[in-house]
């Protein structure tokens, strides 16, 4: 059995005038995340973790913020592209464990919808995806409400005969 682990981290600043998209879910909030794409820190961290586990670089190498093609890009589309072009048919997702870090808005009620999106996009059962949301108790940039961060760990299994 050939297993590989990857980790990913992402953070973006909260700004007025943008929608807040996390895990592919539109969250009602007065601020959104500043980014070249839709700024979905959860999907960016998971995409980075998948790429790392596959030994395929990082999200910035595949979708550079200097390329106008990705301006306003849907992060679910970027994730699905990584699954198609990097993971399939070589790797299968064993599991994902990811944490959103935000003082506000409260995110717990949106986690099941995020989990469902991820399961659909990755072609796995929802039970392979564990999502959490936490605060930093008013400390740091997330605690001051200046931004949102996410961390993800992924385990992949090789589909090749070994």
Please tell me about this protein's structure:
The structure is a single chain. By secondary structure, the protein is of the alpha+beta class. It has one domain (3-161): 60s Ribosomal Protein L30, Chain: A. It contains 5 helices and 7 strands, in the order E-E-E-E-H-H-H-E-H-E-H-E. It has helices at 41-53, 59-62, 75-87, 111-122, 140-143; strands spanning 3-16, 20-22, 25-27, 31-33, 91-101, 129-134, 147-158. It has a 5-stranded mixed β-sheet with strand order 4-1-7-5-6. Helix 3 (75-87) packs parallel to helix 4. The longest helix has 13 residues, at 41-53. The N and C termini lie close together (7 Å). The mean pLDDT is 96.
The strand order across the widest sheet is: 4-1-7-5-6
The largest sheet is: 5 strands, mixed
The CATH class: Alpha Beta
Uncertain segments are none
CATH architecture: 2-Layer Sandwich
Rg over CA atoms, rounded to whole Å, is 15 Å
User: CA-to-CA gap between the ends?
Assistant: 7 Å
Write the layout of secondary structure elements.
Layout: E1 3-16, E2 20-22, E3 25-27, E4 31-33, H1 41-53, H2 59-62, H3 75-87, E5 91-101, H4 111-122, E6 129-134, H5 140-143, E7 147-158
Parallel strand pairs: 5-6
Antiparallel strand pairs: 1-4, 1-7, 2-3, 5-7
Helix pairs in contact: 1-3, 3-4
């Amino acid at each position: 059995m050939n297993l590989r682990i990857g980790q990913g981290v992402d953070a973006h600043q909260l700004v007025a005038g943008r929608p807040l998209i996390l895990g592919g879910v539109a969250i009602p909030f007065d601020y959104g995340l500043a980014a070249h794409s839709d700024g979905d820190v959860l999907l960016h961290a998971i995409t980075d973790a998948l790429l790392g586990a596959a030994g395929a670089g990082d999200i910035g190498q595949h979708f550079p913020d200097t390329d106008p093609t990705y301006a306003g890009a849907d992060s679910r589309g970027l994730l699905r592209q990584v699954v198609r072009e990097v993971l399939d048919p070589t790797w299968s997702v064993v599991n994902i464990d990811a944490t959103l870090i935000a003082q506000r808005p409260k995110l717990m009620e949106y986690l099941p919808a995020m989990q469902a999106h991820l399961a659909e996009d990755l072609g796995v059962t929802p039970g392979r995806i564990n999502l959490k949301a936490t605060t930093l108790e008013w400390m740091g940039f997330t605690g001051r409400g200046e931004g949102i961060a996410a961390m993800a760990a992924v385990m992949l299994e090789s589909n090749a005969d070994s």
